[in-house]
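Input (structure):
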C-alpha cells in the first residue's frame, strides 16, 4: 500500500506542469486517476487470474513508470539538440532562439530563414 501511494505521487508529479523543488505535490485528481488505473488493473488481475495474477501484477507494476521515463528521455534528446556548449556555457542555438522569439517551432523558423535568403 505504501509503495502504491508513493508511486502514484511520483508519476503524478512527472505528469504535471509546474512541479518544482518548492511544490513537490501533484494535484489530487492526477493522483486519483493514476491510483484508479492501478487499482483497476489490480482488481482485474486478482478477480480473473487469481494469485498468479497478483504475482504478475508485481512484475508489471513498473511499466507505467518505464513509459514515462522513456518519453522523458525522448524529450531530453529533443531538447539537447536545441542547445550548444561553448566552453562552460550552454546556449540555445540561433534557430531555436529565433523560434522562441517568434513563437513557432525551430524547424519552421530555419525553413523560413532559408527561403528568405
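Output (sequence):
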Amino acid at each position: 500500500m505504501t509503495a502504491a501511494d508513493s508511486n502514484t505521487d511520483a508519476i503524478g508529479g512527472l505528469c504535471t506542469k509546474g512541479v518544482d523543488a518548492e511544490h513537490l505535490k501533484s494535484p489530487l485528481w492526477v493522483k486519483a486517476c493514476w491510483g484508479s488505473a492501478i487499482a483497476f488493473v489490480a482488481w482485474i488481475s486478482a478477480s480473473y487470474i487469481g494469485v498468479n495474477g497478483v504475482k504478475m501484477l508485481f512484475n508489471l507494476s513498473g511499466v507505467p513508470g518505464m513509459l514515462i521515463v522513456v518519453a522523458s528521455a525522448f524529450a531530453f534528446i529533443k531538447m539537447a539538440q536545441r542547445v550548444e556548449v561553448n566552453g562552460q556555457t550552454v546556449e540555445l542555438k540561433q534557430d531555436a532562439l529565433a523560434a522562441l522569439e517568434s513563437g513557432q517551432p525551430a524547424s519552421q523558423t530555419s525553413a523560413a530563414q532559408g527561403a528568405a535568403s
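Notes: The chain has a mean pLDDT of 75. The two ends are 62 Å apart (CA to CA).
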